[in-house]
Amino acid sequence: MERFPLQTVLLVFDIGTSGLKASLVDERLNILRNVTATYPTHYLPNGGVEQDAADWWMSAVRAGLMLRELVPEYLKRVDAIGISGHMLGLLPMDNDGQALRPAMIRRDTRAKDVARALEATYGADYFYRISGNVLTPNLTLSKAVWLKRTEPEVYERTVKFLQCKDYLVYRLTGNMDSGDFSDASRAGLMNLSTRDYDYDMLDDLGLHAEKFPTLRPSCAIAGRLTEEAAYHLGLRAGIPVSVGGGNGMCESVGAGVAQDGAYYMSLDTAAWIAGQSKEPFFDPQRRLGHICTLDGRSFSVFGAMRCAGKCVNWAQKLFEVGSPRAFDAAASNIPAGADGLIFLPYLEGERSPVYDEQAQGVFFGMTQQHRREHFLRAVLEGVGCGLSQILDVLRERGEILDLRIIGGGAKSKVWKQIIADLCEVRLHDVTTLSDSAATLGAAAAAGVGIGLFDSLSQAVSCIAQASVLSPEEETYPAYRALRARYDCLYPALAPVFHQK
Question: How are beta strands 91-93 and 9-15 bridged, if at all?
Fold first, then answer.
């Protein structure tokens, strides 16, 4: 392997839903400096949620200028550029490299009718057997069909449909034909068995496969920094730029999960549990999703909740709790099971395991004995119950006793203990900062691309487990009783949720 200087510097652009973060990372995956540039998201009355691609590029330029001002000595030493970006987007590009319209991003729901029609025609199992993901309006697949039917002139002029990280690769290297396995698999476009686009499915839907970029591992080098891009960013031309990956898969690597059989939990605004597997897990009830790993060799099998920290933030405002610390203190005064009060955390519908956009939040079992503190405890436990349902599905393949945990919610020891007890699992904190996992995953991929690391697992070997929190077995009877009642509520209430 080529010898590198004592301190290799990797530049990472992480394109988030509200802003772009640029980070300088060393060869031990230590972050040397972070800067962030924000951009607007445009909400349309018909369910459209869009961003302008030019804003992503201008944010990268602004971030580059900030780094040049703050740490010019590091910027001069950048050896490779890695990219992570939010997933499930659709950006049509023309032959001149211009965006034909704003990008439809993950939260865009205009393809609802399209998704319903496709499911009615082909059946839900058809799409799940191919992609390992439930057909939903926010999939890139659904968006592409919607665009072809609703804006046919844009579709005809489209040369490539890009994800946000693919667009940034294009602006950095001039290569507009760069896609990766992680984004394509999550988008519903890829056949997990062949690790390529499902050409028969795309043909059946009237979509042209050549309009989607060539798929490669995220660790591959997409090209080198052009003179023009280098000028705008304050870098030298010729720096290798990796293909990059979707932020969900980059985050998994940044949590230190880069080997088959390893699992982690992300506890933030939303939450999910994911584990790396050599083979897909095609759940007969379609409760799990799949993302191809950054190296293209395995799969991240996951179940995701739509609202986790969002439920806590909502309850904190609703019950006028002054701070997260006060929230935890109040909840800790209530016994496990919250004296029979149960919370369903479906504030924005739910994904795994019910996949129901019309599911709604519920407090159940209220009596005169319940005080504000009971409601706060019930919110934490309700999210914990949802996560334990996901873990139960993943455990259908084998025992899971340990989970790494990242995200802002991991700062709450009270909430972590509740989750550990409900899931009957050991939770391992890691040295990764809660907002840096995707950055470190993209840095690891870029490092593999230039030969700095032999593999992703070697790259993340320095991401250590900081501490472990074990479940308290004395809570098991109360929490098993809570889960039994919790599990009954959605099936009982689903008909009511769907009443018009």
Answer: unpaired
